[in-house]
Amino acid sequence: MIDLTGKVILVTGGSQGIGAATVKILNQAGANVILHYGNSQEKAEEIVQNLGEESCYLVQENLAEKNAAIDLWKQAISWKGKIDVIVNNAGIIVPASINDELETWNQTWQQTLQVNVIAVADLCREAIHHFKQQNGGIIINIASRAAFRGDTPDYIHYAASKGGVISLTRSIARGFAQDNILAYAIAPGFVRTDRIIDTAIQAYGEANLTKDIPMGEMASPEDVGYVVAFLASGLSPHTTGTTIDINGASYVR
């Protein structure tokens, strides 16, 4: 049912975790995928090698830098001359305690907002201009369960940034539907990625992280990737503005 043949899709943060699973699923559905990565060059190149350069294009940019998102968009659009769907998946999660030095606190907040909100907004802005010229397009922003239920004290800034992503997405959906531009948010809870395994699971233990998940386990990256593929298909346009939760019923709105 999901056929993305002919579509050009940009996925940010596509070298590992949710992004890598999404790139592979979109490619399997027939899409030409632009894989953006920040630092994980080896992993990104391995994905392109497996999928084939004719259907997967590699772009590197550090989204923590001001206006890097603009350069990313220019590189991405140069491949096929168009983009039909953008998946804003790239994000960072770095702890910041209220007991940290003020300079450290400020730097972590600024970096988090730059990557998780400002770069996303910059890419959405470029996408909207482009989509207006080609009579439509789709924006899919990866947010978080934390946007709605909050997070632990060391991740207040992360929750705030993802709340910004939700508001950004809803505003785009309301403001540009008349231009045939659709905007969706996906809000995962814990997803079993290398980053979660290396950080949260080692620090807190998997049992502690999954104790409030009725399904008893974390979601897989593919669980998110398949939802992205459905939204990218455009088969349900009147769901624009929607946030889809993927959290095993650990937070039900």
TrEMBL record:
Organism per entry: Lyngbya aestuarii BL J
Record keywords: Oxidoreductase
Recorded superkingdom: Bacteria
The protein, known as: Short chain dehydrogenase family protein
Pfam families assigned: adh_short_C2
GO MF annotation: an example: oxidoreductase activity
